[in-house]
Amino acid sequence: MGRKMKTNRGVAKRFRITKKGKVKKAKCFKGHLLTWKSSKRKRHLRKANYCFESEAKNIKKLLPYG
């Protein structure tokens, strides 16, 4: 009998798979030391980002039920 694959919980918290199969992630550099970063820079960091195909292939293996 086949066993269920386990989802990597660290990856599940950081990435999402879109309907078209792209891997969506949050931008980095917005966790701390925000006082000297410009408002424009922080505003742009709020938007989501997509992974490169080379990264996405490995991430999808860790998210079997995407």
Model description:
- The protein has a single domain, classed as Irregular (Factor Xa Inhibitor).
- A hairpin with a 5-residue loop joins strand 1 and strand 2 (23-26).
- The mean pLDDT is 95.
- The chain is α+β, with helices and mostly antiparallel strands.
- It has helices at residues 9-14, 39-46, 53-62, and strands spanning 15-17, 23-26, 48-50.
- The protein has three helices and three strands.
Ordered list of secondary-structure elements with their pairings:
Layout: H1 9-14, E1 15-17, E2 23-26, H2 39-46, E3 48-50, H3 53-62
How do you describe this structure in short?
This protein has three helices and three strands. It is of the alpha+beta class. The protein has a three-stranded antiparallel sheet with strand order 1-2-3.
Structural class of the helix and strand makeup?
Answer: alpha+beta
The appropriate CATH architecture is Irregular
Physical arrangement of strands within the biggest beta sheet:
1-2-3
On the 0-100 scale, what is the average pLDDT? 95
- Give the termini separation: 22 Å
Query: Low-confidence parts, pLDDT < 50 over ≥5 residues?
Result: none
Number of helices: 3
CATH class: Few Secondary Structures
| Global geometry | elongated
- How is the CATH topology named? Factor Xa Inhibitor
Number of domains as seen in the coordinates? 1
Rounded radius of gyration (Å): 15 Å
Measured by DSSP, the beta-strand proportion falls in 15-25%
Order of helices and strands: HEEHEH
Percent helix range = 25-40%
Sheet with the most strands?
3 strands, antiparallel
